[in-house]
Amino acid sequence: MALLRRIFTLGRRSSHDREVEAELREHMRMCIDDQVANGMSRKEAKRHARLMLGNPTAMRERVTAEDTALGLDSLLRDVRYALRGFRKSPGFALVAILTLALGIGANTAVFELLDAVRLRSLPIHNPAELSELQIKGGNDGMGLNEGPYSKFTIPMWQEIRRHHDPFSGVFAWRTSEATLGRHNEGRHVSALEVSGEFFNVLGVVPWRGRLIEPQDEASCEVSKVVASYAFWKSQMGSIPITPNTSIYVEGRLVQVLGVTPPAFFGLIVGDRFELAYPTCTPSNPRRDDFMMSVMGRLKPDWNIGRASAYLDALSPGLFDSTAPTGYSSAAINRYKSFRLEAVEAGSGVSTLRKAYDASLRLLLAITGLVLLIACANLANLMLARASVRQRAVAIRIALGASRGRLLQQMFIESGLLALCGALLGIAIAQPLSRLLVASMSTERDTIQVAISTDWRVLLFAATVAAVTCVIFGTFPAMRSAKVDPISAIRSGERGVTGNRERFSIQRLMVVMQMAISMVLLMAALLFVRSYRNLATLDPGVRESGMTVGFFDFSTLNIKPENRAAFTRQLVDDVRAIPGVQNAGATTHVLLNGGSWSHSVHVGSIEGSSRFTYVSPSYLATVGIPILRGRGFTKEDTVNSPFVLIVNQAFIRKFLGGGPALGQLIHVMPEPDYPERHYLIVGTIPDTKYNDLRADAEPMAFVPIDQLPVEAQRPGAAIMIASNDSTAAIDAIRHTIGVRYPLISLNFADFEQGIRDNLVGDRMMAMLAGFFGILAALLVVVGLYGVLSYFLAQRRNEIGIRIALGARRGQVIGLVLRDTAGMLAAGLGLGILLTLGVGRAASAMLFGLKAWDPATMSLAVLLLAAVSFVASWIPARKAANLDPVAALRTE
Description:
It is built from 27 helices and 23 strands. It has 890 residues and is α+β, with helices and mostly antiparallel strands. α5 packs across α14.
C-alpha cells in the first residue's frame, strides 16, 4: 500500500519531499536524544548524529534511489529538467531535432521501400502457404520467352494441373496488355491472363459481382473480364456490377464479371493490373513457348522442401511428355534434364528486387553514413553544451549527486532528442519514400508500391533512434560525469575546458566526419559521372525525333502468307504521310529489352547471333550507315536469294575479322525458322542492342519479306523519323484510322525509352549527389562549430599572442594548420574507407573504376575547399580579436 501511495504522489513531489524531510528530522532528533541520555552534551550529540547519518541531501538521494516508485518520479523530474534546458536553448534543440529527423527519416524512407519491395506479404489469405513453381536454374534460354515471369509452357502447365499432390490448388497466370476502347481509339491497360483457379486458390473474395472461375476458360477470345478496384473507381465510375455490365476490350463488348478488393494489386510487387481475363488452352499449343507462371497453395502437412522433392521426382516424366519438336537432340536432352522446384512466394514476385535491390541497399548504407555524420555533429554540440554546464554539474556532485545519476540525466536528454527526431523522421519518411518511388518510375512504366508504416518500419526507426542516442550521447555524458568538482568550481566555466587535451574527442569527431564525407563525395561523383557516361553514350542509332509505332492488325484476320505484304503496305502508307521523314518496319526494337537469336554455322565456327527482320527503309530511318556492299531493296523477297547485312562484331566472331561480302552463312533450323543459307551483301558498324552497358553483340539484319511464314505475327513495329513527333503521331492516327479503322495503334518515344532504361542510374546519381552535398554541408557546420568553440575557449591565449606581437596572418595560419591536421587525417582515413567499400559500387558503374584517380582527386579538392571555407570565418574572427577586451575577461 505504501508503494501505491507513493506512485500516486508522483505528481505531488513537493509534499512528499516534506514528508521525507520530516521523517529524517525525527530520526535525527531521536538520535540526539539517545546520545544526550548517554551523557553527551546536546552540541556534541548533534555533531555525532550528523556524522552517523551523513549529509541530509545525500541521505534523501539514497532514500530516493532505494524507492522504486520514486525512481519513476526521478525519471519524470529528469525529463522536466531536460525540457527546461531545451526551452532555454531552443536553437540547439531545433538544430539537433531537425538533423536527427533528416538522418533517421532518410534511413527509414529507404528501409520503408525495401520493406514494401522485399519483406511485406501479399494481401491474400495466409500468404505463407503460397509457393511458386520454377525450373531450377531457368530454362537456359530455350524456346520463346515472353517476359521475366514466363517460366512454363502450356503443356507443362497442363501436366502440373493434373499432378499437384503437395498443393491444395494450383493456378497459372501471365502478364498481358489489353486495348480498352474501340480499336484505334483505344488505349493499352495492364492485364492479367489467369487460369480459373487463380482467385480461389489465392483466397481473394470479390468486392462486387464474382471473380473468374474454372468454367470461364471456354473461349480463347476475351469475352469476360474482372476489373481491379482502382480501374472500377476511375474508369467505370463505381457503377453497379450486373450480368449486363460490359466495356469495350480489344474492340469488342465484353462482360465485366466483378471487381477485386481494394488491397489486391496482383502478384507483382511494384505493378498493378487493371483487368484480368481467363486464359484458354489452344487445340495445339506450342511446346517451346514459355509464357506462364505457375503457383500453388501448400497443403497443411507439406512444406517447401517436401514439395520440391515431389516436383523433382515428377520432373523426368513431365519433361519427357512435354518435350518440343524441331530442336537438335542435344537441345531436347537438355530440356529433358530440367528439374522443378518450389520456392516461397508469400511476398509476391518482382523484377524490382533484381533491378533495385543492390541500389536500395547501397542507398541505405549511404543514408546510414549521413546519419553518422549528423551524430558526430550532435556529439560535438552536446560536448560543447556539457562544457558550458560543467560548473553546475560540479556543484551537483559536491552536493552528493552520484555520477550514475548524472549519466542518467545526460542520457535522458539525448534520448528525448532522439525520440523527437525519430517521430519527425517517421513523419517525413512517407513523402521521402514516395519521392524514391517517383524517381524509379518512368512515363512508360509507373511503379506502384504500397508505402505504409508497418511494425517493421517502426521497429527499424526505433532501433536507429536508440543507436543514434547511444552514439551522440555517450561521450558527452561520460565527459560530464568525470568532471573534477573542485577544479571546476575554482576555475569557473573556462578553466577546465580550456585544456587542449580535452578537445581530443571533438577533433576525433571532425576527423570521422571528414572521412565519411570523403566516402560520400566519392560515391556521389562516381554515380554522377557514370550516369553522364551512359546519358552521353552514342548507341549507334538515331535517337531524337524517333517514334516507335505498334500496329496491331489481328482484327483484320490477314492470312500469315499475306502479312509481310500488308506490313510493307503499312510502311509505305506511313512514309507518305506529311511530316514523316522516313519509316521502317522491324521485328525487334533496339534498346527495348527484347531479344531474338539464331544459331549460326560458318565454316568450323558455331555460335548464336542476334537476328532482326527489317524493311528496306529501316536502316536509313534509324541512321545506321552501310559501310560496304548494299542495303536491302524491294527485290529481296522470299522468292529471291536469302541475304544478310551484318555488323562488325559478327564479322569478328564468325569471320575472324576478314572479308565479309559474299560469305555464305548457314543458319541452323529452329521451330518456325527453317534451315537456310544466307549471303552477306552488306556490312554496318556496331550498335547497341538491348543495353547501353553491354558490349556490341553479333547482329544480322534480314529483309522482312524473307521472314518465314510460320513466324509472321498479326502486327508490326514501325520506326518513324520526324521533326515533330506529336504532329506526326496525330497525322498517322488520322490517316491510318480512316484507311484501316480496325487497326489498334500505340506509340512510344524512342529516345525517352532509352532514357527510361537508365532510370536506376539516374536515381543513384541524384540521390548520391544529394547526400554527398548534404554530407559536405554537415562537415561545414560541424567544423565551423568545433573551431568556433575551440577559439572561444582559447580566447585569452590568442589575446596574449596578439598582445605579444603576433600578426593577423599568423593567427589565421594557427587556425588553418589546426584544420589542415584534421583534414589530412580525415582524408587519409576516407581514402582507405573508399578503397575498402568501392567494390560494392563497382558493378553499378559504367566506364569508371571505384578507385578512379580523377574522381578521387576531385573529391579530395572539394573536401579541402569545404574545410577551408568552414575554417576561414572563425579564423578571421580570431585574427580580429581585441587583445585588451580578451585579457580583461581573465
